[in-house]
């Protein structure tokens, strides 16, 4: 297939043949970028977030001077918005007490320092202290030693610096997923982290074009190159090449606009991905087989219907919560989005129309 400049026509191979991208797809790039810009947190938001962490650090260090606080998740990985809550990990040696005892003590300390609505939620899968910071209005969840999340946050933040389109694509996909109701793990759909992890792969495999492999190479490079960052968590080594200043403009030969990349993303997940056989491997920057992972059948609560391998906890499927009902909903949403981007007169409006659940 020709890769030549503006005149080229983008195509994907579907289950029924080739599909050609609409000729005017590029005209929607500015609208999509406007949406992306509107999602970015303000400088004031980031400043208040920093002040909150300073306040928490003062409270914690009085009791545990050697403990460390780490921001993690959307508020720290560059994919956050002005609506993102603050997630904090307290890294601490637990010693002779239990994690629950430590959380209860943390809640006492924060109440004593006049934080609002402090609550220790010890029965959650990841036990937390939840609180409200009246000064900023932020809701904040604090967990103990969830260091895989800290490592994953750094990984995503580093990826985001390699090519600005990766951040744009993943942020827009996450925004779409929230509005369409497929970004809620408690409903059996996908987490924000899962969306960040698999967003690039729609573009990697959608086009039969060499220069579109840039996103795969981003992942493959930082995970497969000689590690410059290592954190050991529960005997698992989280290691990758994090000197991302050396990888900037890595995908410069690829000229796809955000509109073309988004078109490729939705068409890949609607028409190309083999849900029966394939696993998205962020670690390897490619698709691997369910058979290779032994993810062919349900194991416990892990259903393995849409498989995304965690880059560090490689036995962890980020799509494990998806069930037979929600996989149908997710695939229908991919197909709807693909149709909107291919045919709608105003896809930037229609694509993000909120889905309302029937009561």
TrEMBL record:
GO terms for biological process: miRNA catabolic process; mRNA processing; negative regulation of post-transcriptional gene silencing by regulatory ncRNA; nuclear-transcribed mRNA poly(A) tail shortening; RNA 3'-end processing. It comes from the Eukaryota. Its cofactor is Mn(2+); Mg(2+). Keywords: Magnesium, Metal-binding, Transferase. One of its GO terms (molecular function) is metal ion binding. Residues 258-316 form the PAP-associated domain. Residues 32-161 form the Poly(A) RNA polymerase mitochondrial-like central palm domain. SUPFAM superfamilies: Nucleotidyltransferase, PAP/OAS1 substrate-binding domain. It holds the Pfam family PAP_assoc. This is Polynucleotide adenylyltransferase. It comes from Triticum turgidum subsp. durum. The lineage of its organism: Eukaryota, Viridiplantae, Streptophyta, Embryophyta, Tracheophyta.
